[in-house]
Amino acid sequence: MQPNLLKVDLSQLLIVDVQTRLIGVMPEADMAACLKQSGILAQAAALLAVPVILTEQYPKGLGHTDPALLAQLTGVTPVEKTAFSCVAEAKVKRQLSRDRSQMVLAGMEAHICILQTAMDLMSMGKQVYVAEDAIISRQPANKANAIARMREAGCIISNTESIVFEWLGKAEGDAFKAISLLVR
């Protein structure tokens, strides 16, 4: 499958494990950026009717999704999981849309849940787009390694602004105006 520009009607957004107790152990500035970019993706997805899946890794131990991020995901209920790959969780797998071949990934940690999810999605025939500025690991070297591995495996490593403007496709309409304000 050849990589393509993202299309709003082919995309699905998966936000992975942005949970309160995990947030506290991440590099502060990197975490703030990850939260901001994940929020932009969530809001753009809502404006453009891109389906969103949200996961929480063992919330009893790691807490729930960051409240500010969750507030930007109106109508999205987190799926609890214990497997590192989101695809290994049957509830997540059921939410994967068959007619949406492009998966956009954001969240944490890059070298564990994001990496394993990306690899499993690719094995299912999905095109995987990773928002590099919306993923994080405790150690920057682990994030860099995960990005290199995912790129080598065929994932498209992108960024939030590229993703949302690919979804838009053109500079017109209310969604364009709203998303332009988000990325300023």
What does this structure look like?
- This protein is an alpha/beta fold and 184 residues long.
- The protein has helices spanning 20-23, 28-48, 59-62, 67-71, 90-95, 110-123, 140-153, 160-168, 173-182, and strands at residues 11-16, 52-57, 79-81, 102-108, 127-136, 156-158.
- It has a 6-stranded parallel beta sheet, sandwiched between helices.
- Helix 2 packs antiparallel against helix 9 (173-182).
Order of helices and strands: EHHEHHEHEHEHEHH
Oligomer classification: single chain
Q: Residue ranges: pLDDT <50 for 5 or more in a row?
A: none
Q: How helical, in percent, are the residues? A: 40-55%
Number of helices: 9
Instruction: Calculate the mean pLDDT score and round it.
Output: 96
Structural class: alpha/beta
Shape category: globular
Gyration radius, in Å: 15 Å
The beta-strand count equals 6
Strand order of the largest sheet: 3-2-1-4-5-6
**Beta fraction:** 15-25%
Question: What kind of sheet is the major sheet?
Answer: 6 strands, parallel
Task: Measure the end-to-end span.
Answer: 34 Å
